[in-house]
Amino acid sequence: MNPLHSAAVEELRAALLGEVITPADSPYDAARAVFNAMIDRRPAVIARCRGAADVIAAIAFAREQRLPIAVRGGGHSIAGHSTCDDGIVIDLSLMRGVHVDPERRTARVQAGATLADVDRETQVHGLAVPSGQVSETGIAGLTLNGGMGMLQRKYGLTCDNLLSAEMVTLDGEVVTASAEQNPELFWALRGGGGNFGVVTSFEYRAHPVGPMMLAGMVAYPVEQAVEVLRFLRDTISSTPDELSTDVVFLRVPALGFFPEEHRGRPVVGFFLRYSGPLDEGWDVIRPIREFGSPLIDVVEPMPLVTVQSMLDPANPRGHQQYWTSEFLPRFGSAEIETVARIGSDLPSPETVMQVIPFDAQPTRIEPDATAFSHREESWLIHIVGQWHDPAENDRCRAWVKEAGAALRAFGSGASYLNLLSEEPGTDRVAGFWDDARLRRLARVKAQYDPENLLRFNHNIPPAPAEAGQ
Ligand SMILES: Cc1cc2nc3c(=O)[nH]c(=O)nc-3n(C[C@H](O)[C@H](O)[C@H](O)COP(=O)(O)OP(=O)(O)OC[C@H]3O[C@@H](n4cnc5c(N)ncnc54)[C@H](O)[C@@H]3O)c2cc1C
């Protein structure tokens, strides 16, 4: 570690309303841990900020001390982007406030909030912001790279519902990005990741959803995967936008709502969530429940906050995580057979594969409206490689890589970057953002972070506009 002068650290401590943690402090090991236990980094300083003023002080300190800067919202980056060795982590986890304006149907959310924080406060008013599927995930990283979840078919991605953001620049200025103020930055923050500055709060459009939804799983022996996937492909486009139906491959976990007699068994199932009126919902999901002879059929009315946290126990902190994801433009027989083969051979009891129809509202949005690049109808295949024992890392990681390569043969090279481990040697950044978009993002990067101080992310190197551009 670059030995920091203790006087400088004390100055930072005095400047912050929040906490400063160094290797000499007892909470250091807990404070440096991130969701993915495979990531084990030792920052020189962790600055737990309480607001924009703390963030400004932390950035100034990092610049004076010439420290690499990592920014941490919920700490769920699978690639380990929210921590670093020998640098400063600007940790926003104390900034979890959510303020809802029920009249305007908006929610102002501090950047350290989790999805659970947002659901909890918005549901008080019968509202919801579309977000992801595991409630402890951070809203910040999820929004900045897109944000997919059960409400996306109806209301779009999380970034599609962003109305404005407050950001601290690397010069220590506070700027607002919205359709009216700094519109290029606003465009870049909706899908361009954490490249441009430290976002301190987000303002979202919220929608009337809940409090009750229909949710659950209809599952079959994994040997029936091809039929299940074909059924999903052939029916999804005729289902209402209120229905979210992913196909999931998993070994039946020891979770309350799964029948005990099937625990540990490999299955393939429809993961159903219906956000419209319940009486209509039962009719909407009937054809799915009548398909074939399900081994498991547990669909129930339940509160939105329960639905949003039902996968939490299957995604605990402390697991080794290695993920990949691939958008497949079509889902023909060859793709289906490959997906079924991969899903029938998961390398550990905790590994899950999810097949997500990417259709409806996200594909209706003008492709250039946001930096989120992928708006074509397609299928997102997400391999959640996870296991307990680090001794399994080589074997399981090799399995995920091989499965990813098999999927990539059918893809266009585009992955959903939020669901990706770092893969040295493959340029997934260029694969996701097309050339024109990358050039536009690089110009915004050059304006707000010309020295590329924020580089622990899916990095966009700064490139100022050339004359005439
Ligand atoms: C269990 C689990 C479930 C998930 N489920 C979903 C899902 O359903 N849908 C989905 O879309 N994604 C999902 N993801 C992926 C998730 O969107 C990403 O991991 C995302 O990065 C998490 O955000 P975070 O704030 O927790 O991340 P962090 O690790 O804190 O940060 C991730 C990146 O964002 C940057 N960043 C974070 N906060 C800021 C900020 N305030 N300003 C600037 N940059 C910032 C960081 O520097 C880093 O580069 C899931 C991830 C996990 C681990």
UniProtKB/TrEMBL annotation:
Residues passing through the membrane, by range: none
Pfam family, one: BBE
Keywords: FAD, Flavoprotein, Oxidoreductase
CC cofactor: FAD
Domain FAD-binding PCMH-type: from-to ranges: 38-209
Lineage top rank: taxon: Bacteria
Keyword Oxidoreductase: yes
Similarity section: Belongs to the oxygen-dependent FAD-linked oxidoreductase family.
Protein name: FAD-binding oxidoreductase
